[in-house]
Design brief:
This protein has 288 residues and is mostly helical. α6 crosses α7. It is built from twelve helices and no strands. Helix content is 77%, strand content 0%. The chain is rod-shaped and about 105 Å long. The relative contact order is 0.07. It folds into three domains: 65 residues, no CATH class; 104 residues, no CATH class; 57 residues. Keywords: Membrane, Transmembrane, Transmembrane helix.
């Protein structure tokens, strides 16, 4: 049996997808047809006491001795992707993706395939909470497309006997150009939203520039918190200015024996308009 398959079986045993008895039987069969002296990995597996309560710890130690943490991660992503392809219920699919999202956070977005799953899950959360973005059907298709990409990479795993092909295409988010682009996109969303442009119009702007739905949704998610903060910060000065303008104008009218002057009336209307704008701005932030 190939080494990559043994590692896969170890993962399955550790996660209760394969019984220790079946695995032990396979190991002893391989030991009979292979020279243990030439295969330290196989020798260490034979040495595991499969009747012990700690056999999983022993097995994990053997895995760690002959493999890397990234290999274990790759196998787990492969297994989780299989579940995504098997499931047809959106909630089941995104429970699995939530697990992958957590792994992505643990790895600090070190692999593109994890980041793809992360964005997919965040888009699902965005759609659930806000009611905008990709439809449930589109999100399901995106999740399965990512899972199929993982399975396409499995051919390389078999060819080169290396699980790391599942995690190929490492990414880095420290690029100044990427950071600058993200900053500009986020600020554009905030600026346009505060000008009361509809989300649909803003999305169309990005689509015309070649952004994908995932990239657009991710940008909206990143800007959401800052948008709320910015809206509230702008609403307060407008409210104060409107109240002051209205109060001063009304006070001036009373000092002049309640005689209206057109310039003063304009100032009153301006003050009320500022108050109205501040209230609208604040209410818009609450809807986010």
């Amino acid at each position: 049996m190939k080494t990559y398959r043994i590692k896969h079986k170890i993962y399955q045993v550790l996660n209760d997808k394969l019984s220790e008895k079946d695995f032990e039987k396979d190991i002893y069969f391989m030991a009979e047809v292979n020279s243990l002296k030439l295969n330290s990995f196989l020798f260490d597996l034979v040495e595991v006491n499969y009747n012990s309560n700690t056999f999983k710890n022993q097995l994990l130690n053997v895995f760690n001795k002959h493999s890397t943490a990234d290999e274990y991660l790759a196998i787990s992503i492969f297994e989780l992707s299989k579940l995504i392809l098997d499931y047809n219920n959106i909630n089941e699919v995104f429970e699995v993706i939530k697990v992958i999202r957590d792994k992505c956070l643990e790895e600090d977005f070190g692999y593109q395939i994890l980041t793809d799953y992360y964005i997919c899950y965040e888009n699902y959360s965005y759609q659930e909470e806000i009611g905008h973005g990709l439809s449930t059907f589109e999100l399901m298709n995106e999740a399965k497309d990512i899972a199929r990409k993982v399975f396409d990479r499995y051919t390389k795993v078999k060819e080169f006997e290396d699980w790391l092909f599942i995690l190929k295409d490492t990414v880095s988010y420290t690029s100044n150009n990427e950071e600058e682009l993200s900053y500009q996109v986020k600020n554009y969303i905030i600026e346009q939203s505060l000008d009361f442009r509809s989300e649909k119009d803003i999305r169309n702007d990005f689509k015309s520039l070649g952004f994908s739905d995932y990239e657009i949704n991710e940008s909206f998610l990143k800007s959401e918190e800052e948008l709320i903060k910015s809206a509230k910060e702008k609403a307060l000065p407008l409210l104060v200015l409107g109240i002051v303008c209205t109060f001063v104008s009304v006070a001036y009218i009373y000092q002049k024996d309640k005689v209206f002057y057109w310039p003063i009336l304009i100032h009153v209307l301006l003050g009320l308009g500022l108050i109205y704008s501040a209230i609208l701005l604040y209410l818009k932030s609450l809807k986010k």
